[in-house]
Amino acid sequence: MSSVTDAVRHTLPTSIEKLLLETSEAEGGVKDVTRPGAAGTRKPEVAQTAKLGGIPMLYDPVLNRGTNFSIEERKQHRLEGLLPPAVESLQLQEDRVMEQIREDCKTDLQRYELLAQLQASNETLYYMVLMKHIKELAPVAYTPTVGKACQDFDRIYRCSGARPCCWEPGRPVGRIYQNPVPWEVWC
Q1: In the Cβ-directed half-sphere of 160, how many Cα atoms lie within 13 Å?
Q2: Which of 21-30, 63-72, 165-174 is predicted least confidently?
Q3: Which residue numbers delimit the Malic enzyme N-terminal domain (predicted)?
Q4: Nearest-angstrom CA–CA distance, 174 and 77
Q5: C-beta separation of 15 from 43 below 8 A
Q6: Which residues are bridge partners to 32 per DSSP?
Q7: Which of 61, 111, 119, 173 could form a disulfide linkage to 126, CB 3.0–4.6 angstroms apart?
Q8: Residue 62: exposed, middle, or buried by beta-carbon count in 10 A (0-12, 13-18, 19+)?
Q9: pLDDT (0 to 100) of residue 18
């Protein structure tokens, strides 16, 4: 493993790092970074979302694997009909992301936006793509592109990956978090 990949590992959220370190080889040499049993080591909030299944699971970037869910997992987590019918390996998903980055994105800022959207929707795939293509993507995921993204933040903002909070001076912050936010309007 290169020192660049090691440096990226230090920036990973602990739960993702643990999953990546506990990978096992699946068919075709694709690493299964979401192996069975890993859910038992997750934080209670993440475990609760996994238990709910369905749409909440697809909106959670830690749990969402898109078309990488097997037919059995789709039944178990009530995802049938919520995803395209094809089951795809992480490798195939990675190849598609890299094809989009290389062919569809004309600028580093467009590549940054694609990676940011991927991180907001599927962290497993995001970190897999970033770690396997770190030399190519480091200038996009870090400096200098991040500086340009900060300057253009108002134009490229899509979803924070967290609960939106529009705080106004004089309004108690605690009251904001008492308001329920349905999954459909989070982003």
Answers
A1: 8
A2: 21-30
A3: 120-158
A4: 33
A5: yes
A6: 24
A7: 119
A8: buried
A9: 45
Domain ranges of the chain: 3-156
pLDDT at residue 177 is higher than 50: yes
Q: Which CATH number fits domain 3-156: 1.20.1290.10, 1.10.472.10, 1.20.1370.30, 1.20.1540.10?
A: 1.20.1370.30
Q: For residue 179, give the 3-state DSSP assignment.
A: coil
> Please, which residues bridge with residue 24 across strands?
32
The candidate with the shortest Cα–Cα distance to 21, out of 39, 38, 3, 4, is 38
Nearest to 141 by CA among 104, 116, 106: 116
Q: How confident is the model at residue 104 (pLDDT cuts 50, 70, 90)?
A: very high
SS3 24: strand
Task: State the Cα–Cα distance between residues 137 and 129, nearest whole angstrom.
Answer: 9
